[in-house]
Amino acid sequence: MSITPHDERFMAAAIRLSRWHLGRTATNPSVGCVIVRDGVIVGRAVTALGGRPHAETQALAEAGALARGATAYVTLEPCSHHGKTPPCSEALIASGVGRVVISVTDPDPRVSGRGIAMLREAGIQVDAGVLEEEGRRSLAAYLTRQTKNRPYVTLKLAVSADGMVGRQGEGQVAITGPLARAQVHALRAETDAILVGIGTAIADDPLLTVRTPGLEAQSPIRIVLDPTLALPLTSKLALTARDVPVIVVASEEVWPLSADAEGLPPSILPDISPPVGGPKDGSRPMARPLSSGRAEGRTPPTDATDMDSRRAALEAAGVEIVYCNPYHPEILLPALATRGISSLLVEGGAKTARLFLEAGLVDRIQLYQAPVVIGQRGIESPLDATDIPSGFGHRGTRMFGEDRLDEYERGF
Q: How, if at all, do strands 32-37 and 71-76 pair?
């Protein structure tokens, strides 16, 4: 059977549904499923909060007996392996559906192609690749972690009319208006973690949480690149670390020798903690050295007593400290992926944005342009609409009051 406009319409509905729980399904992807019989939707679902139950089993339960002979539209290939729940392919087979339409084939080696094979062996017609580009975009975080062993990275920049992202010595400077800021909070709510450099953490004293009424519980893990443990105990991040997790990425040079009984440097300590999810699935990541690499061109602190005191105070406040070269994102990102972080939002400042851009590790750029003029002592933006890196395609423009948002995305 050829793909029809009806197939695309129902798959588009499944893709829209899948976005409801972005950033809230732990290490599992947020998948949408729609069950259609005689042109009418009889069951629909999205992967549950925390990652289980999966979308297919919930949609089938809603459809009940009407699922027999119906068509199931699923944004990602149904799983075929036994994990904490039985395979969704088996559930579809048992329900008696006559056809399954899939947007994206799952790259997970435990599934890839096997779910489709199981369905076809059971006599179910399967059509894959329907609205695949749109489906891949909705599953971008999951697909990036599966295929590139790192989180999907979004860089958000708010740039003034004169090309600045802030003003030196003045902390946070409002560049965009309230409508644009509300959109940024919505982006935070569907992201696993948010990252800033220590300069921004000190100068702006940001909170980095979701403050949209009703979405506060969807705040991402907050990560600070902080080689010498300079995050102030009086900062909003430290003061709220027990409410929303904060991870400080410190240089390996400040690794406490007392933490390693054998005196080994952290770059060769075994990684013994299991991957875990972020705060949105109720768990907190465990402290451990992330990987090898030394902080180039940086002098480690000489006062070990002072460093131990800072470390102890931050940990007592609930801040987690991990030891890795903060300025090698190609090392840091895979380590974050092992902890179940599939999506990362880089919010500042200019040096940190440039770090990820130069490493070629940005997947999406959200560039806000506002009519505000910063003027003297402005901090120049590392990027504007005239010098978007090659490989990025323009995905659209939206207006939020007087602020313009241009979104660029790197192709998969």
A: antiparallel
> What DSSP line would sit under 385-399, residue for residue?
TT-PPTTEEEEEEEE
What one-character-per-residue DSSP string does 56-75 give? HHHHHHHHGGGGTT-EEEEE
Q: Which residues pair with 247 in a beta bridge?
A: 223, 320
- pTM of the shown model: 0.87
Instruction: Report the C-alpha gap between 251 and 12 in whole angstroms.
Output: 45
Does 56 participate in catalysis according to the annotation? yes
Task: With a cut of 70, say whether residue 185 has pLDDT above it.
Answer: yes
Buried b (16+ CB within 10 A) or exposed e, 12-27: bbbbebbeebbbbbbb
- Predicted local confidence at residue 112, as pLDDT: 83
Per-residue pLDDT of 371-406, as tens digits, reads 999 998 899 999 989 999 999 999 999 999 999 999
Distance, in Å, from the CA atom of 388 to the CA atom of 43, rounded to the nearest integer, reads 43
> Exactly one of 8, 56, 121, 170 is catalytic; which is it?
56
**Mean pLDDT score across all residues of the chain:** 87
Asked if pLDDT for residue 138 goes beyond 70, the answer is yes
Q: How far is it between the farthest Cα atoms of the chain?
A: 74
